[in-house]
Amino acid sequence: NAGVTQTPKFQVLKTGQSMTLQCAQDMNHNSMYWYRQDPGMGLRLIYYSASEGTTDKGEVPNGYNVSRLNKREFSLRLESAAPSQTSVYFCASSEAGGSPRFGSGTRLTVV
Amino acid sequence: GDSVTQMEGPVTLSEEAFLTINCTYTATGYPSLFWYVQYPGEGLQLLLKATKADDKGSNKGFEATYRKETTSFHLEKGSVQVSDSAVYFCALSDRRGGATNKLIFGTGTLLAVQP
């Protein structure tokens, strides 16, 4: 049981480049989430998806887009990366009312 | 809006010492409360949770009690080990999200246990 799988684990981008962070879960969870983790700020919610076909903004959505491709997969896209998006990104999923389970993260550096 | 405040770290303890990491929250309604742990280079793992007032969550020797009167959820362990060295996050869930369980996190507390 792999849980939540994120790819890539590390990425370096130049300012203005685009990329997509991939996330997949094998637990048949309906809800999926993207968070970013910054020093001294804990984790903040970027976007979430309550179910296949729906997405909603979280606390810090600016500069990001998401796609809930199917029940398993929830991707996060940076269209034009900025140094302020240097962070560690975590995907998570949960069943209805359940505790979110997290992936191992993607460490992104924008230079 | 809802928020979580937890004690700043780092917290440095000797092995077998008693641990307390303070966590207080502000929320409308009745949130669920969580402690997550992050070991170096890894993602977050659920350590324990409590869903209503006076509930006690426990796991691996760690405990926390949901105190509505003091809006607190302090994490405790009677005897820490070197392997407990990690970052600990307190969080609450925004139940107004319906079936989703969006979490609001504290800033995290780094625990370093020395042999």
What's the structural blueprint in terms of helices and strands?
The complex is a heterodimer of chains A (111) and B (115).
Chain A: E1 4-7, E2 10-13, E3 19-25, E4 31-38, E5 42-49, E6 56-57, E7 65-68, E8 74-78, E9 87-94, E10 101-102, E11 106-110
Parallel strand pairs in A: 2-11
Antiparallel strand pairs in A: 1-3, 3-8, 4-5, 4-9, 5-6, 7-8, 9-10, 9-11
Chain B: E1 3-6, E2 11-14, E3 19-21, E4 23-26, E5 33-38, E6 44-50, E7 56-59, E8 62-65, E9 75-77, E10 86-93, E11 103-105, E12 109-114
Parallel strand pairs in B: 2-12
Antiparallel strand pairs in B: 1-4, 3-9, 5-6, 5-10, 7-8, 8-9, 10-11, 10-12
Top keywords for this entry?
heterodimer, A: 111 residues, mainly beta, 4-stranded antiparallel β-sheet, 51% strand, globular, B: 115 residues, 6-stranded mixed β-sheet, 12 strands, 0% helix, 49% strand
Short précis:
The complex is a heterodimer of chains A (111) and B (115). By secondary structure, chain A is mostly beta strands. Helices cover 0% and strands 51% of the residues of chain A.
